[in-house]
From TrEMBL:
The lineage of its organism: Bacteria, Pseudomonadati, Pseudomonadota, Betaproteobacteria, Burkholderiales. This is Protein ImuA. It comes from Variovorax ginsengisoli.
Length: 272
């Protein structure tokens, strides 16, 4: 007596949960790290930055909004592991005290400086192969799709957080990145940044997300610094007999997270 032949029918109810519909937000197929921005987490598969995959960030200027967008996740990744955050080809030197004040210690940063595209790609691959590295941030404006695919494969093999920064002029070009974002200053409100999701495992998101470009602490410190500068200008411009009273004693140290930058962590005042 022979064995019964397998049924040609598929249990649709059993298999339905394994099928991803293109008009719905997909589930993460690997670990994620929360972005620290609730609005953004709600629009990402799994609710965070994908681990073991490339996230591509497109910007008009290479230094804009980097720390505002990524700092919460980097702080968490470093706290949960023991390795550094590797910066490859960063446009400006990060100012450690500013980042340390927000939870990212100076000793957790490793800055690789090189203007050569090939050297940056090599350094990025080596960093991704290091099991102790918490995250890799790479500025690769000249990288070709084949080179990006190699980095995507390296990130997948070693389950690393990988962020690649490129010009927003590349928005229409093909990319192997699992997640692709365009980040820009909000025209209506300087306190916000527009984050548009160009590519994700789910339907397109036509309306950009408006995320805060500053923490409440940074906003209050910036306002305090502006008030202090205004008082100093009054002291200089006013005649001696009507000079403004001296402000209350305060110790404020101005620091630049990215030298020459003009945004939030790029330019802020922090109480000493």
């Amino acid at each position: 007596m022979g064995l019964p032949s397998p049924s040609p029918f598929v249990d649709v109810a059993c298999a339905a949960h394994k099928v991803w519909r293109g008009d719905t937000l997909g589930q993460a197929d690997a670990q994620v790290v929360g972005t620290g921005h609730a609005l953004l987490d709600a629009q990402l598969p799994g609710g965070g930055w994908p681990v073991g995959a490339m996230t591509e960030v497109l910007q008009a200027t290479p230094e804009a909004h980097v720390w505002q967008l990524l700092l919460p996740a980097l702080v968490r990744a470093v706290a949960e592991g023991s390795g550094p955050v590797v910066l490859i080809g960063a446009p400006f030197e990060p100012f450690g005290p500013a980042l340390a004040a927000h939870g990212l210690p100076v000793e957790a940063l490793m800055w690789v400086r090189s203007d050569a595209s090939a050297a940056r790609l090599w350094a990025c691959e080596q960093a991704l192969r290091c099991a102790d590295v918490a995250a890799v941030l790479a500025w690769l404006p000249q990288a070709r799709p084949a080179e990006l695919r190699r980095l995507q494969l390296a990130a997948a093999q070693h389950e690393a957080l990988l962020f690649v920064f490129r010009s927003d002029a590349m928005a229409q070009s093909a990319s192997p990145a699992r997640l692709r974002l365009h980040v820009a200053a909000c025209a209506e409100d300087a306190e916000l940044m527009d984050v548009q999701i160009l590519k994700r495992r789910g339907p397109p998101l036509d309306t950009p997300l408006m995320l805060p470009s500053r923490t409440s602490r940074m906003t209050s410190l910036l306002m305090a610094g502006q008030l202090r500068r205004r008082q100093r200008r009054l002291e200089i411009c006013s005649p001696p007999e009507v000079s403004a009273p001296a402000p209350a004693p305060a110790t404020v140290v101005r620091i630049d997270a990215w030298k020459g930058g003009a945004r939030a962590l790029d330019r802020l005042a922090v109480a000493a």
